[in-house]
Amino acid sequence: MEQKLEVKKKGEFEPKIIGFLCNWCAYAAADLAGVSRIQYPANIRIIRVMCSGRVDPAFILEAFKNGADGVLVAGCHPGDCHYINGNFKTFRRVTLLKRVLKELGIEPERLRLEWISASEGDKFATVIKEMVEEIKKLGPNPLKVGSKS
Amino acid sequence: MAVLDINEKILDLVQIADIVFWPAVMDVKYRDIENMPDGYIDVCFFNGAIRTEKQEYMAKLLRQKSKTLVAYGTCSYLGGVPGLANLADKQEVFEKVYIQTLSTENPNKVLPRTRTRVPEGELELPDFYDTVKSLDQTVEVDYYVPGCPPATERTLYALEAIVKGELPPKDSVLAPLKSVCDECPRKKGEKKISRIYRLYERVPDPERCFLEQGIICMGPATRGGCGAKCIKANMPCTGCGGPCPGSLEQGAAMISALASILGVETEKEKYAEAEKLIDQIRDPIGTFYMYSLPSSIINRRVTKNVRK
């Protein structure tokens, strides 16, 4: 597999993405991506949670407040949650939180919810690549920019 | 004024306490406060949020002159309903109020200024800040009495604790630790909401939990101690008691709680239905952050013009 290594240009904005990955699926997928030596941008900081349903909306808000340019919440596919229905709650929480973020002036595209199963290491890498590109276009976290004044 | 809710007990209060400053009731001048020695006032109940220079000045002055400062009411505790102004900033508010409103005649687009020259001299107005703040974001606060307005029993509890010298450790909220659900008399069964109703859409059954009827009630995410008065009047809780102890913020707590019970779960969750259900929540900030926006994790909308 031919993969091009991207050289970081000096002065270019490098987004910081916080990822909440569920232990049973998404984290395992990230692990598989690593073991398989799949190249993906190093912009993500991963936090392992037992279930995506553990992700309190307050965690996501804290991440943005502390300067995260993007937040990824990744869990098992619907119907496959290790705890049966945790990811259903995640979906509703993230959907509702996106509306709140929009009203607070933070682009809802900065928060991304993905279902990634343990065998989908390549999907994990693709998601990160896409997310980094999208957030580079959106620019830095607007909360950070405001504090310049 | 909510202090007067204690009715005839106010007479007991004035027997043991000398009220030295109460703008709504007594004609004491700010100069009299400035002339007091520091710490002269034993206890100060401060209500209202801070967004003008005068309010900030009074907060700092009363902090200086008081031994114990109590944030009385949800505005001073969390920012309160005026905190929703954090969805705008000074420029947006002024332009709307003084220029854009339909019935306003202001052809020269005159906006209030902090200083203006008139033939008699110079007039001053307090500055108007971009962001509404709670009292403890402005000065150090010793105790908090939640409520919009604080329930009679909360005011009495605070006054009695002060008089008897039985106050809990500093920084405490003078209210119970449990949510409103603990005091709510309604029948609680299985919570699974398939549709959200606004209050005008259905008359609530006075015996059943509001959430089970599809009416958003902030009870689960709100500190109790109010006797669930609104609920007993067949109105859902709007969250005026502030967050329960231990929660990171009230808005997120309710978003999480509501998302847990929204929708009927099937093996393959139907996203379109879940999204439609969530779209029925017309005003998330107004519903979940009605009283607590200034003291929430993200305390205002990001706008270009905010001066820190």
Per-chain topology:
The complex is a heterodimer of chains A (149) and B (308).
Chain A: E1 17-22, H1 26-35, E2 44-49, H2 57-65, E3 70-75, H3 86-103, E4 111-115, H4 121-138, H5 142-146
Parallel strand pairs in A: 1-2, 1-3, 3-4
Helix pairs in contact in A: 1-4
Chain B: H1 9-16, H2 30-34, E1 41-46, E2 50-52, H3 53-65, E3 66-72, H4 74-78, H5 90-100, E4 115-118, E5 121-124, E6 128-133, E7 143-145, H6 152-164, E8 172-173, H7 229-232, H8 250-261, H9 271-279, H10 284-288
Parallel strand pairs in B: 1-3, 3-7, 7-8
Antiparallel strand pairs in B: 2-6, 4-5
The CATH architecture of the largest domain in chain B comes to: 3-Layer(aba) Sandwich
Could you list the spans of chain A in which at least 5 consecutive residues all have pLDDT below 50? none
Helix content of chain B: 25-40%
| Series of secondary-structure elements of chain A, N-terminal to C-terminal | EHEHEHEHH
What is the end-to-end distance of chain B? 32 Å
Largest sheet of chain B: 4 strands, parallel
Query: N-to-C terminal Cα separation of chain A, in Å?
Result: 47 Å
Greatest interface by residues involved: A-B, 29 and 37 residues
Structural class of chain B: alpha/beta
Task: Please state roughly what percent of the residues of chain A sit in beta strands, choosing from under 5%, 5-15%, 15-25%, 25-35%, 35-45% or over 45%.
Answer: 15-25%
Within CATH, the superfamily of the largest domain in chain B carries the name NADH:ubiquinone oxidoreductase-like, 20kDa subunit
| Overall number of strands of chain B | 8
Number of helices of chain A: 5
Largest sheet of chain A: 4 strands, parallel
CATH topology of the largest domain in chain B: Rossmann fold
The percent range for helix content of chain A is 40-55%
CATH topology (fold) name of chain A: Rossmann fold
Determine the strand fraction of chain B and express it as a percent band. Answer: 5-15%
Tell me the number of helical segments of chain B per DSSP (H or I, 4 or more residues long). Answer: 10
